[in-house]
Write a structure and sequence with these properties.
Blueprint (H helix, E strand, L loop, with lengths): L7 H13 L4 H8 L3 H15 L1 H40 L3
Helix pairs in contact: 1-3, 2-3
Length: 94
């Protein structure tokens, strides 16, 4: 089964319908012909977009992830250099 692309207008209308009606999300999704988890994700995305601090949180989370990756790389480089220094120190007769 292929992936389907829905227009932004369709997504916004689906989210508005889900919010305004008191019916379960799964029933609305079935009526629209969309997977219920897809509709839930659209609703969650819309709620996060409405919060001003959500953008700051996502930016901060991305920065933290990048810094953690950099720390892992630097630790690996440090360990390689330590092993190399230990190896070469053992070979010299100073």
């Amino acid at each position: 089964m292929g992936t389907y692309k829905y227009s932004a207008e369709f997504r916004a209308d689906a989210v508005a319908l889900a919010r305004s009606s008191g019916r379960p999300v799964s029933r609305i999704a079935a009526e629209l012909g969309v997977n219920h988890e897809t509709l839930r994700q659209w609703i969650k995305t819309a709620e996060n977009a409405e919060r001003p601090e959500a953008l700051a949180e996502s930016t901060r989370d991305a920065e933290i992830a990048a810094l953690r990756k950099q720390v892992r790389e630097l630790e690996m480089e440090r360990d390689i250099l330590r092993r190399a220094a230990k190896y070469f120190a053992g070979e010299t007769n100073w």
